[in-house]
Amino acid sequence: MEGNDSITVLPAGKGEGWGWLLTDRPFETPKERYTPEELSLIEETYGSWEKAKYQLGFQEEDVEEWKQKRFQILEVGAGFGVSTEELLDWGIDMYALEPSLRFTDEIDEQVVRLKAQFAKPKFRNRVSAAKAVDAALAFPGKQFDVAFAIGPNFQSYSQTDNEILGGISGVIGALSPKDHSYFAFHINYNGTITYGSEETKFNLEQFLIDHKIRYTTRTYLGEFLEETAIRIFRMNDEGQDAKEILDGAIKEDISKYTHP
């Protein structure tokens, strides 16, 4: 089931031109680590360094829809919870997965910072240390309308094509079995997804077409910048569940979609 691809040109110097979720998180990297050229590009893209911090990419009407319809939203791989906290502050019913919370090294500065962040009252019962593959078990009784992962995320922790599909399936399984429910994340411009330490490429778009899983893609272009993201829906037009299709495919030989 082929998705509808749309390409939008990002106007130079206008961060408002973004209408999609997925970008890297420049605000989570110390400003001084960027070269003057990189910093200039970030500020040109988003309008300012501060705007980059709040640039989730969903259009305002998307967030308003979530609020009005009381959608439940799941962030996969929340990092330090910047996006999750921002959406909570906007009144969105947010939940998050952050597997790093399972680390117990209290000497590690990042572990200490992470646990301190999620100890805030606003995050109570809203954050789980579950991995993507176990997303459906993280919040018993919850079925999410939208799930998203920003930048290189769960993909980096998968070492085989079965593991990458298992992560996607796990998150899809946490979604409500309704037509509007989807999981959004970053892919390469050619429809592949890069995973693992060896940066293997899996032809995700072709896999979805062959297995009749409903999806859409969007590509945003700017000077020196290109971002492509995919939305994989839980239900297809024939009422088939992507979770069941993915779980079945994991048991098959899917090596033909993998390219070193």
Q: How would you describe the overall organization of this protein?
A:
This protein is α/β, with parallel strands linked by helices and 260 residues long. It has one domain (5-259): Vaccinia Virus protein VP39 (Rossmann fold). Helix content is 29%, strand content 20%. It is built from 9 helices and 11 strands. It has helices at residues 36-46, 49-53, 60-68, 82-89, 109-118, 135-138, 161-172, 204-210, 242-250; strands at residues 5-9, 72-76, 93-97, 127-128, 146-148, 182-187, 193-195, 200-202, 215-222, 225-233, 258-259. It has an 8-stranded mixed β-sheet with strand order 1-9-10-6-5-2-3-4, with helices on both faces. A 3-stranded antiparallel β-sheet has the order 7-8-11, with no helix packed on it. The longest helix has 12 residues, at 161-172. The protein is globular and about 45 Å long. It starts with a strand and ends with a strand. The model is unreliable at 4-27 and 53-57 (pLDDT under 50).
